[in-house]
Design brief:
Helix content is 34%, strand content 21%. The chain has ten helices and twelve strands. The protein has a six-stranded mixed sheet. Strands 5-6-7-8-10-9 form a six-stranded mixed sheet. A hairpin with an 8-residue loop joins strand 11 and strand 12. Helix 1 (28-50) packs antiparallel against helix 3 and helix 1 crosses helix 4 (90-110). The longest helix has 23 residues, at 28-50. The N and C termini lie far apart (106 Å).
Amino acid sequence: MSGTRGSAGPRRTVRPAWDTVEAGRPGQSALVTVGLLLTVPGLVLTAMRWLPPADDAAALVAAFVPYGLPLLGCALLCLLGALVRARRRSRLAALAGVVALLLGAQVGWQLPYFVPDHRPVPGTTFGLLTLNTYKGEADPEQVRAAAAQADVVVLVEVTSALVRALDARGWRERFPYDAGASGGRVTNTAVFSRFPLSGSEQFGSSFFDQWATTVDVPDVGAVALVAVHPCNPYCGQDRWAREHEDLRRQVQGRLGGPLVVAGDFNAVVDHGPMQQLRRLGLRSGADLVGSGWAPTYPAGRRLPPLLAIDHVLVDPALGVTALERVPVDGTDHLGLLARVGRSA
């Protein structure tokens, strides 16, 4: 007896679990690889913000902490693109989640510098210019022009030759008061002012000269000014960390009244020493006005400046209403011109 076998019925499609590893689609491996390559330096830079290094070599790397944000942002985009192509991969999703958390930390650190603080400054303001003149090689005419709107000027690495060139252009007519102008060496730092200075003293045993003085600003009152230039990490022998620690002690001893700390810090705001100054109550002018990331070094190159190592910091008694970067030929730094006044 012959017969036929019954049909098997419709086939059922079994959907893979959400974490099933499916065959990779074109470009998926490349996206994952690029994402991982971007994540590693982004992770290192973010970790250096949480655990600030003190040794010279690591401090050089930590100067690039802000670049962790674009690195992690691009890494997350690559991983998300790979995740979409893979449809559902648990390990890839977990990695993307970790990168998103790191990116969130970076955004949290950098975003406040793009948002004005709205610290009110109802009264008179004065202009303050800080500029590293690169061994006194800054163009004197451009220095004079940059200082036209300033009442107080901090010049770093200012030589006697540059001071003479400025004097020949009527510098002393606008800035009759000074501290440190007679140093003359490339390691010199000087303060020039339209208003009387008092209690001027060179402090610390730093490689570059640093000065503290008090400026008697009309309608503002006595303002303590610390003109700084701690050694950079290239100086070696842990000078960078030691000189920043000495600077912190000097600043801490001058808290309690209107205080400005300005100059070439050889440190970005994410460095440990700058975070210590912030915990003492000092805020950068860039932070207060919401000017965002304002790199000042290296200037005068084909590429734009990469690092924000020049700063104007103020204590809670003062506010900053404006801050701009000022280019000057002959130097590898941009200057900073700030408007400073008493806060309400």
